[in-house]
Amino acid sequence: MSDYELAIGDRAYSSWSLRGWLLFHAFGLPVTTRQGRLYTDDFPRLMAEFAPARTAPALRLPEGPVISESLAIAEELATRHPEAGHWPRDPRARAIARALAAEMHAGFGALRSHCPMNLRVSYQDCAPPQEVLADLARLSEIWAWARRESGSSTPWLCGDYSVADAFFAPVAARIAGYNLPVSPEAQSYVAAHLAHPSFRMWRAMGLCDGADQPFYARPWETRPWPGPTPLSAEPVPSGPSVNAACPYSGRAVTDFARIGAGVYGFCNPFCRDKTVADPEAWPKFMAIFQG
């Protein structure tokens, strides 16, 4: 169990929670998550345990105090774990990354409002108003500026994946989910997010960690999710399975799924369903599948 404890909301919908979790997982830091379902009494009950924070993500430090706001969490983790690489080592790239993260933290209100993050669906057209189009133009502008000024030769904005990229992951999800118009260069950046291992894990969990939230439903025509196409997979009622122990917990299998040509076992429905959602997102499962 990790010394850090992170309060999050629904993975499919809570963009701020996604940022907070990426600050750990994408940088190789362990964290224990506590989830509260949005728009239910469950969420305020959880947040009461993380006072004085009022919103997710909220982080309980090993010494006990709780800090909230993803930018504060990012800075605290970068200070405590300089080896993790939250910020670029190069001073020029680091300054650019910090400027980007700060603008994302405080801006793009029209985009947030018209296109709340929903990792469970992608719409054909959301009729973005002019204010949203202006936000998208600004994103394309600062993303191109960051890559040019930092000299990045990777898919990311300032060289290696950094806090700036973690902060823009929910924006990439919005562009994908609402089929928003951006420049070809910006679209390539979105595609890099959709394929990022940590993002794929989070989305796979978000597809099966609770019922759809009615607040996020929109009356628009849908299309397939534009990220990597997952392997064919479906739950099945029984085994036998290729494996006797769950790839994640090591416990005896009780729930089963057909993935590719084989049947595989898991220790509970969530382990099964997150794997069915995107088998290739899970290295521990793929080690069995490919072996």
UniProtKB/TrEMBL annotation:
One Pfam family linked to the record: GST_N_2
CDD domains, per database record: GST_C_3
Key words of the record: Transferase
Gene Ontology process terms (BP): glutathione metabolic process; L-phenylalanine catabolic process
Molecular-function GO term, any one: maleylacetoacetate isomerase activity
InterPro entries cross-referenced by the UniProt entry: Glutathione-S-Trfase_C_sf (IPR036282), Glutathione_S-Trfase_N (IPR004045), Thioredoxin-like_sf (IPR036249)
Domain GST N-terminal: 4-85
Signal sequence coordinates: none
Record flagged with keyword Transferase: yes
PANTHER family on file: MALEYLACETOACETATE ISOMERASE
Name assigned to this protein: Glutathione S-transferase
Organism: Falsigemmobacter faecalis
